[in-house]
Fold this protein.
Amino acid sequence: MEQKLFVKILKFILVIVVTVLFLFPIYWMVTMAFKPYTEWTAAGGKIFWYPTKPTLDNFRSIFSKQLKMNPIAGTAIRPVVNSLIVAVVGTAIAMIAGVLAAYGISRYKRGGNLPFSLLQLRMFPPIAIIIPIMIMWAFLRMIDTWFGLVVIYGVVTLPFATWLMKTFFDDIPHELDEAAIVDGCSNAGAFVKVVLPLAKGGIASTALFVFILNWSDFLVALVLTDRRWTTIPVHISKLQSALVGQLYGPKAALGVIAAIPPIVFGILIQKYLVRGLTFGAIKK
Amino acid sequence: MAKIVLDHLVKRFGKQTAVKDLCLEIEDRQFVAILGPSGCGKTTTMNMISGLLKPDAGKVFFDGKEMNDVPPGQRGVGFVFQNYAVFTNMTVYENIAFGLKIRHRPPEEIDREVNEVTRLLQIRQLLSFNASKLSINDMQKVALARSMVTKPKIFLLDEPLSNLDAALRNIMRAELKKIQQELGQTTIYVTHDQVEAMSLSDRIAVMNFAVLQQYGSPHEVYNRPKNLFVANFIGSPTINFMEGSFGSGAFTLKDFTRGKIPLSKQAMHAAGQKLTSQEVVIGVRPEHLKIMDRGSEGAGFQGEEDGGSPSGLLAKVVSSEPLGSKTIVYLHPDANPGVILKSSMGSDYRPAIGEMKELTFKEKNLYVFDKKSTELAARF
């Protein structure tokens, strides 16, 4: 019994340590967003674990027309809007194509090893091919356009969407399709009326996953955008000044703002994530 | 209400042949069971009849009309799946109304039909429930209702009772039969449970390894099985098989020290006709194989002429199963402890384990199978 208690305490401590390790960066970012300049620079030589004089200065500065310490960066409003547009449209492309492809693969077993080879495609480090893509895009005059980004986002996340949705569709027994077909549905009708509603949970969680991938992309946006279509991650990297160095306060502020849409998205679809998908459709 | 004809149906999946050259005729209003072990091709056959699968060769006819290119929704079949396939995102009402809605029936008609069919199956009180919240037994009724409501000409049931608990299975079996007789649908019922097949159907199609083994009434398949497989598959407990050879007017069973069974004249004649080799397998059903104490009167093989001469077929009792209405006794032949024979005795029969008993059976209850071809050679 002594031993068991000891092990339990050890486990508890381990959990605390790991939790702190993971949550600390988030805590750090959130607190830094509200710290005044004097507290977020390292110039003072002192570390402030929490903002003693919380202020909204950082938020104000990133949205001002001219950043106080870096006149070139400009306001963050455009990047926020850009990110939203590009991430949403990119996700939509990946989801629409992915869901349809996944259904076909799941039900008709066509495509052989396509899903897996699609996935392998993704394992190829994007950094290795981003330069050729940039050259292609420049040639096609797609640099710094929303559709230039959106196409890449859609294509790059398509394998994930397909792969994930295929597993969700596999979980829906094909007898349900067949029952609808015998009752007079067309194949497409069976898909839309029976299978899709049952796959809602899968679609929701896959969409969230894909959205987060697109939303947080830095490399592709960095290479393929210039000034008009920068996204949030790229804009954050621009928040620096020659005098001060990295503007951590504003960076943290923008980071906090950037964290909001995925969270909101997650909350909105929560009810689809939680319930079982085909629970009870077949006798298990 | 339609006559179904399957004409040389073939279905392959890659290199595997799931259904080989199947020819079957099902008369109007008949209840036919397709019986066989898992993987024998019965569900594949059903899917070809319903139109969910296209045959690689051969044709399906309903009332003389070729159905190969007709999509399932237009064939007028009702299908009940083994795992029910109830739409869990809809209510019970919506599930049952599904087929009628797809066919654009007016709402009043839909309402009337759904209420009628749920009344018949006694599930009217469940109409507003979400289908995922039902018990398995209710789900099965919903699946049945959904297939019935479009008033199909043909019912296809794919092991619909195999997921129910035993008590309900018996009740539903009777219900199904009653409904089928009332409504008069031609019904095809797939199962691996031979008791179900025997009790429900007008005719049974026994399949094994993609090939139709026998097609006949329950009486026929039981008393005149075409081959070893059918004889073994039908009947519970399973038939006893004893290997031996045929020659000079008698069977010699090889697992017994004194295994000679002399035959009556007409039996010998009938047996000789069809046997292609001397090797035979003798089949005796447990209810025809009785046990007696050694040397007692009436023990031994009873040919038609003899009326019982001690055959000397000795077997040792291994165990017994008192089942209430009867007792199954397991024995092995005295010369071969590897073979197990079953005898169905009365409910009070309690043999001592390890005791040596004498087997007795009548000639007219023997099935003689040609060992090489596995086919039934004679039945006296």
